[in-house]
Write a structure and sequence with these properties.
Elements lengths: L2 E9 L4 H13 L4 E3 L2 E4 L9 E10 L3 H14 L14 E7 L4 E2 L4 E2 L8 H10 L4 E2 L3 E2 L4 H4 L4 E5 L1 H5 L6
Protein backbone atom coordinates (compact mmCIF):
# COMPACT_ATOMS: atom_id res chain seq x y z
CA UNK A 1 0.00 0.00 0.00
CA UNK A 2 1.25 3.47 -0.73
CA UNK A 3 0.76 6.61 1.26
CA UNK A 4 2.41 8.24 4.22
CA UNK A 5 4.92 6.12 6.10
CA UNK A 6 5.72 7.28 9.62
CA UNK A 7 9.24 6.25 10.63
CA UNK A 8 10.61 6.52 14.15
CA UNK A 9 14.27 7.55 14.45
CA UNK A 10 16.28 6.85 17.58
CA UNK A 11 19.89 6.54 18.73
CA UNK A 12 21.82 6.61 21.99
CA UNK A 13 25.37 5.57 21.07
CA UNK A 14 28.11 7.65 19.50
CA UNK A 15 27.19 11.07 18.13
CA UNK A 16 23.47 10.25 18.12
CA UNK A 17 22.23 13.62 16.80
CA UNK A 18 24.65 13.47 13.85
CA UNK A 19 23.61 9.88 13.10
CA UNK A 20 19.96 10.89 13.10
CA UNK A 21 20.85 13.75 10.75
CA UNK A 22 22.49 11.21 8.42
CA UNK A 23 19.37 9.02 8.55
CA UNK A 24 17.15 12.02 7.77
CA UNK A 25 19.22 12.79 4.66
CA UNK A 26 19.02 9.14 3.58
CA UNK A 27 15.24 9.03 4.07
CA UNK A 28 14.75 12.19 2.01
CA UNK A 29 16.27 10.33 -0.95
CA UNK A 30 13.31 7.90 -0.78
CA UNK A 31 10.64 10.53 -1.37
CA UNK A 32 9.10 13.75 -0.13
CA UNK A 33 9.46 13.87 3.65
CA UNK A 34 8.95 15.99 6.76
CA UNK A 35 10.67 15.59 10.12
CA UNK A 36 9.53 16.39 13.65
CA UNK A 37 11.53 18.27 16.23
CA UNK A 38 14.42 16.50 17.92
CA UNK A 39 13.64 15.02 21.34
CA UNK A 40 15.78 13.56 24.13
CA UNK A 41 14.30 10.82 26.29
CA UNK A 42 15.37 8.60 29.14
CA UNK A 43 15.67 4.92 28.16
CA UNK A 44 12.36 3.09 28.53
CA UNK A 45 12.60 -0.62 29.33
CA UNK A 46 16.31 -0.28 28.51
CA UNK A 47 19.59 0.93 29.94
CA UNK A 48 22.32 3.22 28.69
CA UNK A 49 22.56 6.90 27.81
CA UNK A 50 19.55 9.03 26.93
CA UNK A 51 18.07 8.55 23.48
CA UNK A 52 17.64 11.17 20.79
CA UNK A 53 14.41 10.67 18.84
CA UNK A 54 12.33 12.08 16.01
CA UNK A 55 9.69 10.91 13.54
CA UNK A 56 9.71 11.27 9.76
CA UNK A 57 6.60 11.37 7.56
CA UNK A 58 7.63 9.94 4.19
CA UNK A 59 5.45 9.86 1.07
CA UNK A 60 6.05 6.51 -0.57
CA UNK A 61 4.60 4.04 -3.04
CA UNK A 62 6.86 1.29 -1.72
CA UNK A 63 5.30 -1.79 -0.11
CA UNK A 64 5.82 -2.09 3.65
CA UNK A 65 8.22 -5.06 3.39
CA UNK A 66 10.49 -3.28 0.91
CA UNK A 67 10.52 -0.13 3.03
CA UNK A 68 11.37 -2.16 6.13
CA UNK A 69 14.33 -3.73 4.26
CA UNK A 70 15.61 -0.26 3.33
CA UNK A 71 15.36 0.86 6.96
CA UNK A 72 17.25 -2.21 8.21
CA UNK A 73 19.97 -1.63 5.59
CA UNK A 74 20.38 1.98 6.78
CA UNK A 75 20.71 0.77 10.37
CA UNK A 76 23.46 -1.67 9.32
CA UNK A 77 25.33 1.11 7.50
CA UNK A 78 25.54 2.91 10.85
CA UNK A 79 26.82 -0.15 12.71
CA UNK A 80 23.57 -1.26 14.34
CA UNK A 81 24.01 -4.40 16.40
CA UNK A 82 21.33 -6.38 18.23
CA UNK A 83 23.14 -8.24 21.02
CA UNK A 84 19.98 -8.35 23.20
CA UNK A 85 16.48 -6.88 23.38
CA UNK A 86 16.45 -3.10 23.90
CA UNK A 87 20.24 -2.83 23.73
CA UNK A 88 21.75 0.63 23.22
CA UNK A 89 21.94 1.44 19.53
CA UNK A 90 23.78 3.55 17.01
CA UNK A 91 20.60 3.88 14.93
CA UNK A 92 17.06 2.55 15.25
CA UNK A 93 14.59 3.07 12.41
CA UNK A 94 11.08 1.77 13.06
CA UNK A 95 8.27 1.65 10.53
CA UNK A 96 5.49 2.95 12.78
CA UNK A 97 2.63 3.07 10.29
CA UNK A 98 2.02 3.03 6.55
CA UNK A 99 -1.19 4.47 5.17
CA UNK A 100 -4.06 2.66 6.77
CA UNK A 101 -2.37 -0.74 6.82
CA UNK A 102 -2.89 -3.12 9.70
CA UNK A 103 -0.68 -6.23 9.93
CA UNK A 104 0.17 -8.75 12.61
CA UNK A 105 3.09 -10.64 11.03
CA UNK A 106 6.09 -12.02 12.86
CA UNK A 107 8.50 -9.72 11.07
CA UNK A 108 6.32 -6.67 10.50
CA UNK A 109 3.47 -5.33 12.58
CA UNK A 110 1.54 -2.23 11.61
CA UNK A 111 0.88 -0.05 13.43
CA UNK A 112 4.14 -0.67 15.30
CA UNK A 113 3.49 -2.50 18.58
CA UNK A 114 3.27 -0.32 21.69
CA UNK A 115 3.79 2.97 19.81
CA UNK A 116 0.91 4.40 21.83
CA UNK A 117 2.73 3.56 25.10
CA UNK A 118 5.91 5.51 24.33
CA UNK A 119 6.21 9.27 24.66
CA UNK A 120 9.36 9.25 22.49
CA UNK A 121 7.23 7.99 19.59
CA UNK A 122 3.87 9.56 20.36
CA UNK A 123 4.99 13.18 20.87
CA UNK A 124 7.00 13.59 17.64
CA UNK A 125 4.42 11.57 15.69
CA UNK A 126 1.58 13.82 16.86
CA UNK A 127 3.72 16.88 16.13
CA UNK A 128 3.67 15.84 12.45
CA UNK A 129 0.09 14.51 12.38
CA UNK A 130 -1.91 15.89 15.33
CA UNK A 131 -5.18 14.27 14.25
CA UNK A 132 -3.68 10.89 13.33
CA UNK A 133 -6.01 7.91 13.67
CA UNK A 134 -4.51 4.44 13.22
CA UNK A 135 -6.30 1.14 12.65
CA UNK A 136 -6.75 -0.81 15.85
CA UNK A 137 -5.72 2.20 17.98
CA UNK A 138 -8.03 5.04 17.05
CA UNK A 139 -7.09 8.66 17.68
CA UNK A 140 -3.53 8.83 19.03
CA UNK A 141 -4.23 12.05 20.98
CA UNK A 142 -6.21 9.88 23.42
CA UNK A 143 -3.01 8.14 24.58
CA UNK A 144 -1.14 11.30 25.66
CA UNK A 145 -2.26 11.20 29.33
CA UNK A 146 -0.88 7.66 29.70
CA UNK A 147 2.65 8.73 28.66
CA UNK A 148 2.71 12.07 30.50
CA UNK A 149 5.05 10.77 33.23
CA UNK A 150 7.76 9.52 30.86
CA UNK A 151 10.98 11.55 30.81
CA UNK A 152 11.16 13.39 27.48
CA UNK A 153 12.33 16.81 26.37
CA UNK A 154 11.69 18.60 23.08
CA UNK A 155 15.09 20.02 22.07
CA UNK A 156 13.97 22.03 19.03
CA UNK A 157 14.53 22.21 15.30
CA UNK A 158 15.74 18.82 14.06
CA UNK A 159 17.85 20.04 11.16
CA UNK A 160 19.60 22.74 13.18
CA UNK A 161 20.44 20.31 16.00
CA UNK A 162 21.64 17.43 13.83
CA UNK A 163 23.75 19.40 11.36
CA UNK A 164 27.42 18.46 11.61
CA UNK A 165 29.40 21.15 13.37
CA UNK A 166 32.39 22.51 11.45
CA UNK A 167 35.62 23.01 13.42
CA UNK A 168 36.37 26.64 14.27
Amino acid sequence: MSGTAFIGLGANLGDAPATLGWAWLALQRLGPARVSSLYRSAPLEAQGPDFFNAVVALQTAEPAEALLERLLALELQQGRERPYRNAPRTLDLDLLALGGEQRMGTRLQLPHPRLQERAFVLLPLLELAPELVLPGLGALQAYLPAVAGQGIERLGDFEALTRPQLPR
